[in-house]
């Protein structure tokens, strides 16, 4: 025969408290009983019997006879199990609904984040972001730069290091100086004809692994860059940048 505690523990899985489960099992053994009798059989403190029994009554699992002393009687096992099953199914459905709502909210936030376009300002911040993008690149870096870029020296050193790691380096420039400096380690250096000083263009462009792009400009004498990664916006910018640099894909 199963013990009092074993059966009570099973009922707790259906949402009954420890005291409620123990009182209900004791009443099934007794058929009917007073608080004193229930406490003696269940091990639940007598002071806690009344609250647990009243809660079971509210849940429709116990009937109360207003006698002196008050007497409690459980409903039939089949009826009780049916009620507990329905409660379990309702709680399962509620949990599923709430978890899906949480999941959808998270996915909505992720979708918003996927369209993020970031702006960094100041020489230190721009250099730090460029260094991070280059460091995270695994396969291919496309760089558009001229010799007047304030990042010329930094890019040269970092790109040479990535080249030694086996990353493909493609450099597009109008400057013969840049072409000569990058040619020893770059996979491809494409020197373009100058398009004129009056044509607006970024000072430097980085495209990493065909999913991250950074455009650097000089705004009000301050270095500024916009960048995006893994977004539809980044894809569009990458296509536009490639067209502007006229570099092979």
From TrEMBL:
The Transcription regulator TrmB N-terminal domain covers: 11-76
Alphabetic keyword roster: Coiled coil
Q: Which residues form a coiled coil?
A: 81-115
The record's annotation in CDD domains points to: PLDc_like_TrmB_middle
Domain Transcription regulator TrmB C-terminal: start-end pairs:
117-237
Gene3D superfamilies named among the record's database cross-references: Winged helix-like DNA-binding domain superfamily/Winged helix DNA-binding domain
Top-rank taxon of the source lineage equals Archaea
Q: Which family does it belong to?
A: Belongs to the transcriptional regulator TrmB family.
Report the protein name in the record: Transcriptional regulator, TrmB
Organism (species): Halogeometricum pallidum JCM 14848
């Amino acid at each position: 025969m199963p013990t009092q505690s074993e059966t009570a523990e099973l009922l707790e899985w259906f949402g009954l408290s420890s005291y409620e489960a123990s009182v209900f099992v004791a009443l099934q053994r007794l058929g009917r009983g007073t608080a004193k009798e229930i406490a003696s059989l269940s091990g639940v403190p007598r002071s806690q019997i009344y609250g647990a029994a009243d809660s079971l009554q509210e849940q429709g699992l116990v009937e109360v006879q207003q006698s002196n002393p008050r007497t409690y009687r459980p409903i039939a096992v089949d009826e009780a199990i049916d009620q507990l099953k329905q409660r379990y199914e309702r709680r399962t459905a509620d949990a599923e609904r709430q978890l899906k709502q949480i999941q959808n909210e998270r996915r909505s936030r992720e979708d918003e984040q996927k369209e993020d376009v970031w702006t960094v300002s100041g020489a230190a911040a721009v250099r730090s972001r460029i260094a991070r993008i280059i460091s995270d690149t695994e396969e291919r870096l496309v760089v558009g730069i001229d010799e007047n870029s304030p990042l010329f020296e930094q890019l040269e050193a970092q790109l040479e290091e990535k080249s030694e790691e086996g990353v493909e380096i493609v450099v597009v420039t109008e400057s013969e100086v840049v072409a000569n400096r990058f040619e020893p380690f770059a996979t491809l250096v494409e020197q373009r004809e100058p398009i004129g000083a009056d044509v607006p263009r970024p000072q430097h462009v980085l495209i990493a692994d065909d999913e991250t792009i950074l455009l650097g400009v000089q705004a009000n004498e301050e270095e500024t860059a916009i960048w995006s990664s893994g977004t539809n916006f980044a894809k569009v910018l990458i296509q536009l940048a490639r067209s502007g640099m006229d570099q092979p894909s």
